[in-house]
Amino acid sequence: MEIEKQAAVLTYVKENIASIVFKPLHAGEQEIPDIDKLQKMEQVLREDPGLFLSKWGRYLPRDVLSQFEDLQDYEVMFYLRKLVQHDSPSASPPASDSRTRRKSSKTHTLIHNRRFEYLKRHLRESSYFSDETMQMREPMLYEQYVGQYVSEEEKNAPFGSDVNLVQRVLKDIDRDYVNEQVKMQKEIQAEQEEEEEEEEEEEEEEEEDNDEDIATNESEMSHNGSTSFGGAKTFSSPPWNQMFNEKEKDVESMSAFQQSQHDEFVRLMEERFLDGKDTEFDYSAVDYNEEYDDLEEEERDIQERYFDSEDPQDGNPPAMSVYTGKLDY
What we know:
Layout: H1 3-15, H2 34-47, H3 49-56, H4 62-65, H5 74-84, H6 98-123, H7 131-137, H8 139-145, H9 152-155, H10 165-209, H11 214-231, H12 240-243, H13 251-274, H14 284-287, H15 295-308
Helix pairs in contact: 1-2, 2-3, 3-5, 7-8, 10-11
């Protein structure tokens, strides 16, 4: 970033330091002096403009933000697009640029970590990951890992006394929706499997006609066909009657298996959230919010980037102005 543009940004920051939140304070933590804030903010601006925008860009007016627009930097453009609501053509560096790919990966990691922090703080112990709400979001995935192992008696158990009439009606509607979705998906799956089976039979017949050793060929095709068909199944988990033969497995084994399947289902649902696949969730409230950054990890990353930038042929560190080289925000 050009020195003149840095100066313009820092001038505004200095004049408005009282209205800029330097960092969230923990209980009992004291605010550091303004001069220390300015020194640290100047260092971050010089070394990592993208990080500067992620932390303090929200406090800058558009004319100050425009000082960053000439930087061909993926992370900078990522935050500028959000802060000024403007998608500039210059915001997309060439896809072949290896530096762009590194910045893209860095931003992806930042977003993923913020989502994970939000998940831990607000979602993991909430109704968002209850069986009912997860089943509504992904009926077929729930059926694959949980539902197919639940007896009809459990599925149709009567409502408890604490469930009022309105709640019962809504739950019945949800239950009907889930059942319809599962039924439809199973029908589609059955049709696909039937088509695949027919195609395999046709292929077997063609190969048998061209093979002199029909018996050997039939044996090989039977083996290959069963392998191919098995791999095409949507449900990777064995059916209930295969896993647990009523009289051969005890209740403890059944419970352990069901719990492991349930845990795997929850893990997959958390992965879907982290990957941005929950379409009804407002990810922008998390992705652009530095409140969900791991500040200690971020500090270590900045220090590593700083020391990595030192000239290996020069035993002296680069000019640092008045900085100590250690960041504690």
